Amino acid sequence: MPASAHRHVIRDLVVVALVAAACTAAIVGYAAYRIDQQGRRDDQRHAGAIVVLGAAQYDGRPSGVFAARLDHAVNLYLAGAAPWLVVTGGKLPGDRTTEAAAARAYALERGVPPDRILMEDAGRSTLESLRSVGVILRERGIHDAVFVSDRTHMLRVLRIARDQGITAYGSPTPTSPTDADPQRRFTATIHELGALGVYFLVGQESAGDFGPPAEIPAPAASAVP
Predict the structure, then answer these.
(1) Which of 67, 77, 167, 187 could form a disulfide with 144 if both were Cys (CB 3.0 to 4.6 A apart)?
(2) CA neighbours within 13 Å on the CB side: how many for 207?
(3) Is this structure's pTM higher than 0.70?
(4) 23: burial class by Cβ within 10 Å (0-12, 13-18, 19+)?
């Protein structure tokens, strides 16, 4: 190949690489914007159910992230936003109880009646839990729900819920430790970009993926009288 032709090939490859990089950056930037935009919206309203996404629990005690989600979901229920509270989340290897069981106990201590709590306790990821939630709601003739999670998690939660045929509204907790810490929120956003990409490409998620990581156990709190 003549040297001039070789230079043209290299130039064309560089142009293609730059265009691809620019397109990728634009897609990632738009996705990050949508994650932030959805996380700032609170569309709470009366619906058939409130669904709270699971997160880490420590031998039945919700982590700080999980407790923040539960506090917001319980407050919505007690304010009359829905007749049902759906708690979600299975357990990972080594766990002695499920996230849903820990959430149920937490909600009961704060005044939610036991016959108003529905449990999804087998899911090991956001996708698995929401697929099961779709079945639970359809069995009871419920078509719409308010979903509670962290701000960075809401876009993925609502997309998956709507893919399950649920009319979904988001109401992110305003007290998540992840959202309060800029570094943790940045890390959570990166995590969500990857999780959204995998979901859109292959329709799957990793086991144990319930949104931002949670390492901090929630402090003990007294029950609502």
Answers:
(1) 167
(2) 6
(3) yes
(4) exposed
Going from the N-terminus, what domains does the chain have, and what CATH number goes with each? 39-202 (3.40.50.620)
DSSP 181: S
Residue 114 DSSP one-character state: G
The number of residues in the chain equals 225
How big is the CA angle at 214 (ends 209 and 220), to the nearest 5 degrees?
Answer: 130
pLDDT tens digit string along 37-64? 999 999 999 999 999 999 999 999 999 9
- How far apart are alpha carbons 217 and 153 in whole angstroms? 19
Question: Which SS3 state, helix, strand or coil, does residue 168 take?
Answer: strand
Of 138, 151, 35, 40, the closest CA to residue 86 belongs to: 138
Summarised one tens digit per residue, pLDDT across range 76-92 is 999 999 999 999 999 88
Q: Is 158 helix (H, G, I), strand (E, B) or coil?
A: helix
Tokens of 61: 């005690």
Q: What's the CA gap between 99 and 45, in Å, rounded?
A: 25
Q: 74 by DSSP, 3-state: which?
A: helix
C-alpha dist (Å) from residue 43 to 39, 51, 168, 170: 10, 14, 9, 5
Distance CA 73, CA 102 (A): 14
C-alpha atoms less than 13 angstroms from C-alpha of 186 in its C-beta half-sphere: 3
Q: What share of the chain in percent tops pLDDT 70? A: 86
Q: Where are the extended beta strands (E) located within 110-187?
A: 117-120, 144-148, 167-170
